[in-house]
Amino acid sequence: MPGIYKAVKVTDKVWWVGVIDRSLKEFHGYRTPRGTTYNAYLVMADRITLIDTVKKPHFSEMMERISSVVDPSKIDYIISNHAEMDHSGCLIEAMEAIKPEKVFASTVGASVLRDELHGIGEITPVKDGETLSLGNMNATFIESRMLHWPDSMMTYLDSEKLLFSQDAFGMHLGTYKKFDDEIPWDMLEWEAKTYYANIILPYSDFVLKFFDKLGGLNLDIKTIAPDHGPIWRSRIPQILELYKKMAAQKFCERAIVVYDTMWHSTEMMAKAICEGLDSQGIETMLYPLESSHRTFIATELIEAGALIVGSSTLNRNMLPRVADILTYLKGLSPRNLIGASFGSYGWSGEAADQIAKMLGEMKVNLVTDPLKVKHVPKSEDLKKCYELGALLGEKLREGCKLPQQ
Ligand code: FEO
Questions:
Q1: I want to staple 49 with a disulfide (CB 3.0 to 4.6 A). Which of 4, 43, 108, 149 is the partner?
Q2: Are 165 and 243 in contact (CB under 8 A)?
Q3: Where are the alpha helices (DSSP H) in 139-226?
């Protein structure tokens, strides 16, 4: 009896045979309310080829989708573009079921797969720029190191003008809609930004270098097929432009104020800082950590030029949620930011200094010393907070050459 899981045609010779994982709500600390997809692709060339696999628990679903097009034992090759386990977790099972003639990965990928999937069979390493004949078409391997891991590579299929881009240009969006033109741009843009901010951001220099490399290759690309989310066929210039913009991180018209508070004093300071930023015409996002998740703060931060962080002092430390967001953001290595720290305290007041230290380690350019207030802010304290916001706003305006108010 035929199964319920079917392949979806991408081009004349390429089928989507992946998985929609709607139940995934978090990916390594990154919230994914819309779930995700693990995209695998079947190339029906003379030499039938499977591009990437899926997360281990979804192996049988992938095989069923493959079987809706071809008997899996007819597959000649598997190409593993990326060794992270959401794309390689069932590779051993796939190799056992399919018995392909060869499995290809980048040189680093072959080594990572051996480290991750103990007992895996032979993997044939391929070099950057190497071309594999699939009979009636060619697959060219393009190393894309650090997009997202050191092993990452892309595969370009000449006859289909299709780039299999693994994590790059992907998003966590678990929908049956397979193509970019079936989904509103606003949703694509938000999910692509969220994915970039939470996954790719630390490797922005590699993204910029990859664009130089891609430009030099002068490929005719009509379709980009990533390993997560929809396939790009109508908005390729838009997603490439968005990536270039996010990688450059030269946004500065916005500010992000993040805080946690015990008895609302640090909250009062945060609001006064926002007023000061407002006075300079700076769009400001305020994130109380009690009700804000790190995923979305990171997403907003990639379009900001200032990061201002506050915490009450609790037992000679910043509050735990502030330590969480700073640890997370530090790992993402955002760039080109100015900032400041602030907080109220009762008797020792270490939090604002600790925040300033971490912001410094993140290479945030601090415009002033930590701003501290003892217990509840008086009106002169709130004025200082307002002035800090206004100073940050002026510096952003100066840096961005925004029009005078
Ligand atoms: Fe979707 Fe880096 O794995």
A1: 43
A2: no
A3: 185-195, 204-217
- Nearest-angstrom CA–CA distance, 140 and 120: 24
Six token digits for residue 205: 């220099």
Mapping DSSP to helix (H, G, I), strand (E, B) and coil, where does residue 107 land? helix
Two structure tokens written together for 256: 């992000």
Q: Is 148 in the pocket of ligand 1 (CB under 6 A)?
A: yes
pTM higher than the cut 0.85: yes
Architecture of the domain spanning 8-248 = 4-Layer Sandwich (3.60)
Contacts of 311 (CB under 8 A, 6+ apart): 259, 260, 261, 266, 318, 319, 322, 343, 351, 352, 355
Residue 27: predicted pLDDT: 94
- Torsions phi, psi of 9, nearest 5? -75, 130
Catalytic residue among 52, 86, 260, 303: 86
pLDDT along the chain (405 residues), means of 10: 90 98 96 98 98 98 98 98 97 97 98 95 97 98 97 98 98 97 98 98 97 95 98 98 94 90 98 98 97 97 96 98 98 96 97 98 97 98 98 91 48
Task: Give residue 377 CA to ligand 1 midpoint distance, Å.
Answer: 46
Which pLDDT belongs to residue 253?
A: 79
Is residue 372 within a helix (H) or strand (E), and if so which, with residue range?
strand 371-374
Does the beta carbon of 151 lie inside 6 Å of ligand 1? no
Closest atom of ligand 1 relative to the 152 alpha carbon: 2
User: 255-396 is classed in which CATH architecture?
Assistant: 3-Layer(aba) Sandwich (3.40)
Domain positions in the chain: 8-248, 255-396
Q: How far is the CA of 21 from the centre of ligand 1 (A)?
A: 14
Q: Is 148 a catalytic residue?
A: yes
Measure 20 CA to ligand 1 centroid, in angstroms.
Answer: 15
